[in-house]
Design a protein that fits this description.
It is a single chain. The protein has 357 residues and is an alpha/beta fold. Helix content is 55%, strand content 15%. It has an 8-stranded mixed β-sheet, sandwiched between helices. Strand 2, helix 2 and strand 3 form a beta-alpha-beta unit. Helix 9 packs antiparallel against helix 10 and helix 11 runs antiparallel to helix 12. The longest helix has 56 residues. It is globular. The termini are far apart.
């Protein structure tokens, strides 16, 4: 009896109440032109029947059911990795439809580049969800990743792969710290780079994003799941890479939007500050001209005009999030210094009293 060879790639898809997307995601994986793979769906305690959808692919999909879920995507991905047999772990979000050549591209890259430990891609420029907010959010992600450094400083688990041996060596995703969707993949990328491993941003590795956004979900996710935890990670590690959302032009844009808001407030008292506010916003437009031109080419003038205020708002709440976390860190450091001085002072008084006796 012949033994089936182990697959090269293990596609790991964590899902929690993603029944609306999962079938399309799995259909795309099944249609791949690369066959040496296995697909593992990790059901994180879903209540919407997603497990039944995965069960409709009995020959190509294994389902790992986490009855105690939801425990978050970090925990789910780790459980999927434990069940995997492939030498390459390909993490894929359940709301992404891979292009047909994605798995082959990843397999070839790892075979040709033995020095590379991880690779990730991006959304394509054709998101399925309609509406300005959804289109803006997905096209922004596409643009940022397509213009990122090929030698990446972090990792993205929405459509990213890593050698299983390296994943095990660094301990996988930090499921204790990140018990809900957050920056668990970014933090993993930081540890990969800190351990001396290389990560590539493969711009041809793309998938169509299916998720729909509204203004509330956009702002809530950006602040609580991205801006604030990423700010804490930056302050903890003291690493601020010049890449993706943290490129110098983006940092300058944050500062300019903050100045524009300050000048606008001053203009209530002294109207001449209005010109300074306008100049700061004009500078933001110059720094982001490539993005705005991309919006224009993809969707036209009116879409671009609607996206620019959304993008300026993004700078406002992201900047405020960083300032909040920075203040939190400074207060914590001040408390630690104060406690240290109190302990030293108490110790000095105790020694002085002992000597006096």
């Amino acid at each position: 009896m012949s033994v089936e060879p182990a697959p090269t790639i293990s596609v790991i898809i964590p899902v929690y109440n993603g029944a609306a997307y999962l079938d399309s995601c799995l259909q795309a994986v099944a249609a791949s032109d690369y066959r040496s793979y296995e697909c593992i769906v990790v059901d994180d305690g879903s209540t919407d029947g997603g497990r039944n959808i995965a069960a409709q692919f009995p020959t190509s999909v294994r389902v790992v059911h986490l009855a105690e879920g939801p425990r978050g995507p970090a925990y789910a991905r780790n459980r999927g990795a434990e069940a995997a047999r492939g030498g390459i772990l390909f993490f894929l979000d359940a709301d992404i439809v891979l292009s047909s050549g994605a798995l082959r591209r990843v397999a070839n890259l790892f075979q040709e580049r033995t020095d590379v430990a991880g690779v990730f891609g991006s959304y394509d420029a054709q998101p399925k969800a309609k509406g300005v907010v959804s289109q803006y959010r997905n096209l922004l992600h596409h643009f940022v990743h397509q213009n990122g450094n090929r030698e990446a400083s972090t990792f993205w688990a929405g459509c990213g792969a890593i050698r299983r041996s390296v994943f095990q060596e660094i301990g996988g995703f930090d499921e204790k710290r990140f018990s809900r969707p957050s920056i668990e993949d970014i933090e993993l990328g930081y540890r990969l780079r800190q351990s001396g491993y290389r990560i590539l941003l493969e711009k041809g590795l793309q998938g169509t994003h299916l998720k729909s956004w509204n203004l509330y979900s956009l702002i809530r996710t950006d602040i609580s799941c991205r801006a604030m935890p990423w700010s804490r990670l930056i302050l903890e590690t003291k690493k601020l890479p010049n890449d993706l959302n943290l490129k110098f032009g983006q940092r300058a844009s944050f500062a300019l939007v903050a100045l524009a808001c300050i000048f606008l407030a001053l203009a209530v008292v002294q109207p001449q500050w209005l010109a300074a506010s306008a100049a700061a916003l004009l500078a933001v437009g110059v720094l982001n001209r490539k993005l705005y031109l991309t919006f224009f080419r993809q969707r036209g003038f009116f879409f671009t005009a609607a996206c620019i205020p959304l993008h300026l708002l993004y700078y406002v709440y992201s900047g405020l999030s960083y300032f909040y976390v920075w203040t939190e860190f400074q207060l914590k450091a001040a408390r630690e210094i104060f406690k240290f001085e109190i302990r030293n002072s108490d110790g000095f008084r105790a020694k002085s009293a002992k000597r006096a006796k």
